[in-house]
Write a structure and sequence with these properties.
Blueprint: E1 26-27, H1 39-51, H2 61-75, E2 84-87, H3 90-101, E3 107-112, H4 117-123, E4 128-133, E5 135-137, E6 140-142, H5 145-152, E7 157-163, H6 175-187, E8 191-195, H7 216-219, E9 222-226, H8 229-232, E10 240-243, H9 247-259, H10 269-279, H11 281-305, E11 310-311, E12 319-323, H12 331-342, E13 344-345, E14 347-348, E15 358-362, H13 367-382
Parallel strand pairs: 1-13, 3-4, 3-7, 7-8, 8-9
Antiparallel strand pairs: 2-10, 5-6, 9-10, 11-12, 12-15, 14-15
Length: about 375
Amino acid sequence: MKYDFDKMIDRTGTNSYKWDIAEGELPMWVADMDFRTAPEVTEAIVKRAGHGVFGYSTVPDEWYGAYINWWKNRHDVEFKKSELIFSTGVIPIISSCVRKLTTPAENVLIMTPVYNVFYNCIRNNGRNVQEFPLDYGNGRYSIDFDRLEKALSEPQTTLMLLCNPHNPIGRIWDRETLAKIGKLACDNGVTVIADEIHCDITDPGCEYVPFASVSEKCRNNCVVCISPTKTFNLAGLQTAAAAVPDKRLRHKVWRALNTDEVAEPNAFAVQAAVAAFEHGGVWLDELRQYLYDNKQLVKEFIANKLPRIKLVPSDATYLLWLDCTSLSITSKELADHIRRSTGLYLSSGDIYGSKECFLRMNIACPRAAVQDGLERLLKAVGAL
């Protein structure tokens, strides 16, 4: 490999949210990576920093071009410049859209288990969370479309948050599934916000399907949230985009983001995104292979040494979803026990809306750290 993903990076002393832990603990929870970003991104940031003046920034044509070319070349969908709106992050886009596209006490549908911050985006804005539990059987999640049609037909339901690929289960929704979701949403007057922030982190040979590319009903009824932050480990730079093909919907989103003052870049947001999309392709492909190999390590370890835990098969993200239902304990109790007894910090499945015992594990770290985490998990489970 050209890039070294095995190198352990000391993140202490950097105000890292992930690493704000006790000595001896191993954080494998929040979704950022312990790898340095692509060197080309760092070079762009250092070059900008060297200028020394950090006044207000605009969004230049090269930012639009970088997004357009990346999605065209990588994902076979073409957004127009007029369809893209800069934002400081995917969550700001979602929160602003919840406020602008719905009224207080209306329902926002989410398919659970799902990214826990979706709950905050809905509840903090005075809207109702409408949970739609995914079906789970034989280690795989699926959608009951009869139930979904009934849920979307609720008169009080006006917005749906779609996670594609789906965090935390790692599922890439296929074209047929997305088309069905899009048709049901459109036919029932429900706007779809598609959070596609994990779209580039797929297993080698696997590709995601952009929601806006599936059909006219999907394209004309969606707000697509995209960003280089998960892909290139840039969350702290606050850089993202809303892609909104429909003109009238786009105006509402533009108004929402500007009203909430989340549509202006900081001094590094544009340069980092452009460098990532224009020069980070080789780095990303090597990263995807490294993450896939980490996933295989976890799969084999669990199968051989932790048979009471089942790894839910996935094709995307660096977040693994562990089925621990056979341990006869709640997910919070299990996560607390693991952290208390071994220092391994995993996410408890209940925060994602799981009613059963599941844990989420972040494997975007050097292989030695993954091995360390697995040994701690084995120790903790053995002590139950």
